[in-house]
Amino acid sequence: MPLALLALAIGAFGIGTTEFVIMGLLPEVAGDYGVSIPTAGYLVTGYALGVMFGAPLMTVLGTKISRKRMLMLLMGLFIVGNLLSALAPAFPVMLIGRIVASLAHGAFFGIGAVVAADLVAPDKKAGAIAMMFTGLTVANVVGVPLGTLVGQSVGWRVTFAIVAALGVVGLVGIARLVPDMPKAEGVRLRHELAAFKNVQVLLAMAMTVLGFGGVFAAITYIAPMMTHVTGFADGSVTWLLVLFGLGMVGGNLVGGRFADRALMPMLYVSLGALSVVLALFTLTAHDKLLSAITIALIGALGFATVPPLQKRVLDQAHGAPTLASAVNIGAFNLGNALSAWLGGLVITAGLGYTAPNWVGAVLAAGALVLALLSAALERRTGEPGTVVTGGAPAGQRAAVHH
Q1: pLDDT at residue 26, as a whole number
Q2: In CATH, what is the architecture of 1-183?
Q3: Pair 207, 267: CB distance under 8 Å
Q4: Which of 154, 303, 336, 373 has the fewest Cβ atoms within 10 angstroms?
Q5: What pTM was computed for the model?
Q6: How many other CB atoms are there within 10 angstroms of residue 36's CB atom?
Q7: C-alpha dihedral (271, 274, 276, 280), degrees to nearest 10
Q8: What's 234's DSSP letter?
Q9: Which GO cellular component term is one of those annotated (predicted)?
Q10: CATH number of 184-402
Q11: Distance from chain centroid for Cα 349
């Protein structure tokens, strides 16, 4: 694997850390600013919405420059956002800093996935994408727990300053290690937009929303579930999340390896198993050992879908995949927001803290149904990823290798 993938992984590590570390620091942030915990929760919601809307916006703005330069600009935006968060004198300024940082998230992973795939041979593309996403998964094992510990020990502002420094390392790495690959000749914004007329691209994004939504339906409410139902102490939640992160790392690497060999079968197995494990979590949540094993499995099976789904979008978007790739990153966050909302509804309805697991199981099963439908449509047309109308001319598509 090229060293350039290491630079992309470092950037992904910083982004993954800043996305999730705020969840462990909400009490400290709320206390410093004199706001309630639910109000501080807007720092999570604002970031997710920034990713959703920022992914297509920043990608469109970057269509006029090379992908390497755009990645560097996105890391610069990420650094500014985290520095603003670290120095924010008031809560609204902190929220603005979070949103500024989030604008880099979707476009970085979307464009980074295209660059990673371009750096390797065709039969290693999913593995290269997985290598970049390893930075995000490792962030949940190392970056988030350490960032939470630092924030609770010496102040949350120090955590965000460190994350900004990680952004600087990622920026330097991209500048020195990522080759300045020329833009795809003849591909314009209208070609990028035309990818969304492809039913297979839309199905892949819907799989992303439902599949990853299944994961976060359970994980969003993991703290009250583990403390009130399973009987873990409050301090144990951090280490349970580390188990989840370890599962993410393993699942991501396995998903990348097997997606290059058999992409759709990999999706069938991971989504089907994820649905079953989430359903079983309603039972295993009553036992400490079984619940810990289940949490690790959810992380592994959930992230085993990430490289194949991202590669599926790249494959189906043909010669203009950058915008579709970035929007698919936003789809992950849409799934997070949707599942958290649905999980909250069933808890509010009095169905208990394990009820979101059933929500997750249904969402994952829905993603499996869409995967089967996608494969059936592909067999019927006899051609992977047929664009309904529009798009780059066939000659241009054939000349661009992604």
Answers
A1: 76
A2: Up-down Bundle (1.20)
A3: yes
A4: 154
A5: 0.75
A6: 9
A7: -170
A8: G
A9: plasma membrane
A10: 1.20.1250.20
A11: 29
